[in-house]
Amino acid sequence: MSFYLLGESAAVIQTRSPVSLSCQRRLWSMAQQLRAIGGYREVVPGMNNLTLVFDPDLTSGTAQLALLADLWSASDAQDFIPRSVLIEVSYGGASGPDLELVAAHAGLHPEQVVALHTAADYTVYFLGFQPGFPYLGGLPPVLATPRRDMPRLLVPAGSVGIGGTQTGIYPAATPGGWQLIGRSSVCLFDPILAEPSLLLPGDLIRFVAV
Fold first, then answer.
1. Fold for the domain defined by 84-209
2. pTM of the entire predicted model
3. How far apart are CA 165 and CA 74, in angstroms?
């Protein structure tokens, strides 16, 4: 466990590896409390860490490090209350060109892949790669599939993919190497909104086939 400053306007809490859901829940609980306090430029929970960006004209790094230490000591994984989000997905066909490949890799029929993918509850561990891209934990192990040897030059926005042991959704059109099994019409990131990302770390996600 460590607490340190990034320049003069950011404080970080870094927990020990490996990643655990219990530890992440404590960090997400801290993020909720810090957002409720308000006045921060950004509150950014990551994998095993949380970064607090503040105005150095209004407070000091020393004070924010002390606050992070106090919040961590008082935090409990049970304090975190996740949001639940349903995301509709059109599986297979042009929307999910790799569905049959994932099925063959798992020794399943495509319909079984869809049934398993929609039966699981997923946790947003963190956002990254591109704005609003959720890295989701909870993929049924049988569906784990290696990334493509040759990434696509363009993956359509809303594509739902599997990369190794994780599943995720592409918020915007971009090159990408995950196996695409479906597509959603949901907007995951809108920069003009006060809260531009639809999903936040800690959210519980459920996919619904349409």
1. Cyclophilin (2.40.100)
2. 0.84
3. 32
